[in-house]
Amino acid sequence: MDIKLASWNVNGIRAVSAKEDWKWFSDCGYDVISLQETKASVEQMPESITDPVGYHAYFASSIVKKGYSGTAVFSKKEPLSHEIELPDPEFQGEGRIVHLEFEKFHFFNGYFPNGGADILDESGKPTGEFKRVPYKMAFFDSFFKYAQKLRESKPIVVCGDFNIAHNEIDLARPKTNVKNTGFLPLERAFLDKFVAAGYIDTFRFVHGDLKDQYTWWSYKTRARAKNVGWRIDYFFVSEELKENIKDAWIENDVFGSDHCPIGLCLSF
């Protein structure tokens, strides 16, 4: 039995669903589809999204700020259970996590926090410190502890926008971004810790050190046309599922957002 899973930061579900590119959703045939940065409450979405034919739908929307963050998961098979957000109240309210439990694994869809704007000093110069990096790292730590607890009962699959490029190969211009959030040593160290704990970057597992593979391109300076991008969207699985990884890929020919979809096939 093969299970095909997809993850896509759509940068606004209402905007992308009005584009021709949204045909991807109805045509893709995935068993589980995860979306990030939906930027809408359920009441603001059309029924074709909130109750799509053939899928069970689960949403986490921001309640602290409208039109912000948000995640969704669509599954052909009804999960054993589902929950939104992390258990820690400190990291609730932004709609960043949807967690489904299936027979074979726990599944997380995450829109992990961005590091935020650079903090300026009294003279207005950038300090190299970013407003939300402390929150971002605390969020990752809370997620890691929860995933490890659940992993005691069954394996973990987690996908989404991690807002971190792990290694130099994962962004087009590493040298000029070492002091920018998304590629800070502190942020990259979390993914080092994650991998060391037995979580597998499925794309690298399948494709090794394949270069020029990105999932996000800034809308500025026509970055996508020049493939000046970052790989910040991932499917990780805990190592108990290593033998179940059949394929992993990036759909860089799908447009409609500043991110593109990524996919994973697990075979059981």
From TrEMBL:
All residue ranges annotated as the Endonuclease/exonuclease/phosphatase domain in the record: 6-259
Pfam families xref list: Exo_endo_phos
EC number: 3.1.11.2
Superkingdom as given in the UniProt entry: Bacteria
Gene Ontology biological process terms in this record: base-excision repair
Matching InterPro entries: AP_endonuc_1, Endo/exonu/phosph_ase_sf, Endo/exonuclease/phosphatase
Keywords noted in UniProt: Hydrolase, Magnesium, Manganese, Metal-binding
UniProt site positions, description: Interaction with DNA substrate: 259
Binding-site residues, Mg(2+): 9, 37, 161, 163, 258-259
Active site: 111, 161 (proton donor/acceptor), 259 (proton acceptor)
Site (Important for catalytic activity): 233
Xref: Gene3D superfamilies: Endonuclease/exonuclease/phosphatase
Keyword RNA-binding found: no
Residues at the site labelled Transition state stabilizer: 163
Known cofactor(s): Mg(2+); Mn(2+)
Cofactor note: Probably binds two magnesium or manganese ions per subunit.
Molecular function, one GO term: double-stranded DNA 3'-5' DNA exonuclease activity
Enzyme class: hydrolase
The protein's name in its UniProt record: Exodeoxyribonuclease III
Source organism: Succinatimonas hippei (strain DSM 22608 / JCM 16073 / KCTC 15190 / YIT 12066)
Top-level taxonomy: Bacteria, Pseudomonadati, Pseudomonadota, Gammaproteobacteria, Aeromonadales
